[in-house]
Amino acid sequence: GALVLNIGTLSPHWVDAMLAAGKAANAGGVPVALDPVGAGATRYRTDTARRILDEVKISVLRGNQGEVATLVGVEAEVRGVESIEIAGEPAELARAAARSLGLVASVTGPVDHVSDGKRVLAVANGHELLAAVSGTGCMSSAITGCFLAVKRDDPLEAAAEALAAFGVAGEDAARGAKGPGSFHVGLYDALAALDPDTLDGRAKIT
Questions:
Q1: Which of 163, 147, 50, 41 is nearest to 108 (CA)?
Q2: Contact 109, 64 (CB under 8 A)
Q3: If we measure between CA atoms, which residue out of 173, 174, 169, 175 comes closest to residue 194?
Q4: Segment 80-136, tens digit of pLDDT
Q5: Alpha-carbon distance 187 to 83, whole Å?
Q6: Checking CA distances to 202, which of 20, 46, 52, 118 falls within 20 to 30 Å?
Q7: What is the pTM of this model?
Q8: What pLDDT is stored for residue 83 in this prediction?
Q9: In b/e form, how buried is each residue of 31-70, taking b as 16+ CB within 10 angstroms?
Q10: Which helix (DSSP H) or strand (DSSP E) does residue 202 occupy?
């Protein structure tokens, strides 16, 4: 019901495959989410993310502050796949990215911000241990694809609700965790245990 393109592992044949998949999804009316992993860290990653944005219609761009800032020309420092520092406010970055790129920008951080260029939704769910485990950003992009598949006509709401769900799972996993390792395992269990009533009662979206 949706396609998630994640540039975490890059080589020319993977890039060609992502472009082919994205164009096929566009032709079939399937929404596409893009995770520009490490954009800003290397020229190859930045150029690949921009090429996908140019050649594929993207519904939701889900990235950290540094990655998204890089793609819209805002000053940012990215080390590896981590966002170190950006200029400006995350809410305005999300709005500017959405307007500039013509999509929904889902910018994750201590508080997540999602924008369609007009509205900005802040998502305050989550736990600091999410930043201590590699791959949680990619996981949030996968969850975004799940929500986008069933709410394709409202990508703003889908993206915000996906991050709230992922954040609630992070909160649940942290309660029984002794550190990043047990938290990582608990996160999978918490995601599997999510239910609509829990999300409705605990989502912090403003």
A1: 163
A2: yes
A3: 169
A4: 445 445 556 889 999 999 999 999 999 999 999 999 999 999 999 999 999 999 999
A5: 22
A6: 118
A7: 0.92
A8: 45
A9: bbbbbbbbbbbeeebbebbeebbeebebbbbbbbbbbbbb
A10: helix 196-202
